[in-house]
Amino acid sequence: MATTDHRKQSLYFPEDMLEEIQREATRQDRSLSWIVQQAWKVARAEIRRMPSVNDVLSAPPRPAAVAASPAATPAATTPLVAAAPSSDEPKS
After folding, report:
1. Pick from 67, 89, 91: which is nearest to 77 by CA?
2. Any residues with CB less than 8 A from the CB of 20 and at least 6 apart, and which?
3. Which candidate, 1, 8, 12, places its Cα nearest to that of 85?
4. 13 in Cβ contact with 39 (< 8 Å)
5. What is the pLDDT at residue 60?
6. Is the pLDDT of residue 45 over 70?
7. What is the DSSP code (8-state) at residue 13?
8. What average pLDDT does the chain have?
9. pTM score > 0.70 for this model?
C-alpha cells in the first residue's frame, strides 16, 4: 500500500463556497479534504488550460479598435494590471 503524504495547508474559500462544500461533504459522508481533492482531480485539466498571470501580462498588446474619438473608446480596452497580494493575506 502506498504511503500518503499528509502535509497540512490552509486554504481560504469564500463563505458561501465553503458552506456548499460542507453540504456536499455531509451529503456524501466524506471529509472536506476528500471533496476538495476530488474536485481538483475532476477540474485540473480545465484549470491547466487557463493562462498563467505571466502569460496574460507578457502577451503583446492587441491593436485597439479604431474609434471616432478617444471618448468613444470602451472601458473594456483598459489593460489588465496585476496587483501585489495584500500584506494581511497569508502566504502559501
Report:
1. 67
2. none
3. 12
4. no
5. 65
6. yes
7. -
8. 77
9. no
Contact call for residues 73 and 67 (beta carbons, < 8 A) = yes
DSSP annotation of 83 reads P
Instruction: Return the exposure string of 57-75: e unless at least 16 CB atoms fall within 10 Å of the residue's CB, then b.
Output: eeeeeeeeeeeeeeeeeee
Cite the DSSP H helix spans in 6-83: 15-28, 32-48, 53-58
The amino acid at residue 16 is: D
* Angle, CA of 88, 7 and 54, to the nearest 5°: 55
Local structure of residue 29 (DSSP, 8 states): T
| Cα angle 23-24-26, degrees, rounded to a multiple of 5 | 65
* Nearest-10 crossing angle of helices 15-28, 32-48: 120
For residue 30 the three cell numbers come to 466524506
